[in-house]
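WARN no homologs supplied; continuing
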Amino acid sequence: MEFYDTSQDAARFPGGQFVSRYYMTDLLEDDSIAVSIDTMLKSGNQFSLDGGIPAWTVEGDDLAKVNDFLKKSCMEFCGSLPGDEKDEDGYSLSGEAKDATASRNGLSRNQMGIEEKAAECKEAATVLANDNAL
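OK structure emitted
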């Protein structure tokens, strides 16, 4: 999600001046680093896009609109929201990372299994060849 300041000079900044960028999951789920927009709204907090520029703050109805947009987009593209109870992890990058690791580990185990089977086949072929040579 990218934020732009459209109050800046349009000739200099067509589409607005870039302010900041966030991952969708960072804005939708609480974690050890940050709180979600839901949590900000419930506690009446503002979302500061840049601590040095007070105008680059989103709050109240505008923050609720951003939250609604993110949730609708996440449901449209991902089929669930971070932390949904559809499965153990819901949709989150940590869930994706766990899946990728499990897949990679599974491939390694399969590779070892294939190598073992190939060695067994080679050994059997050698035994057969030796038996036929006698």
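Confidence is low (pLDDT under 50) at residues 86-91.
OK
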